[in-house]
Specification:
105 residues, alpha+beta, 3-stranded antiparallel beta sheet, 6 helices
Length: 105
Amino acid sequence: MNDPDVFSALSNPVRREILMQLRKGPRAVNDLASGFALGRPAVSEHLQVLRKARLVREEPRGRERYYHLDPRPLSEVGDWLQAFTHYWKQRLAALEDVLDEESRE
């Protein structure tokens, strides 16, 4: 099986929430699991997908494994999305025109 790419890893809302939690600093898997209605094994599976996509790294500390956010792949996604910024600007400008027209009526 191929390792998941960043977009595939980010497609799951649980994995996105894990990344949001890791923005605050490294966390042990038990600590992360306490924030979800999922069991620890399910959260561990999500963490493995994130690890294979290089979005998190694992650090063993005694009997616990701590997970750290690795922002580099997210930065690459941000760079890729930047190419589409002008489409959003055009759509927002069109929306603003419609709202201006409606407010004048």
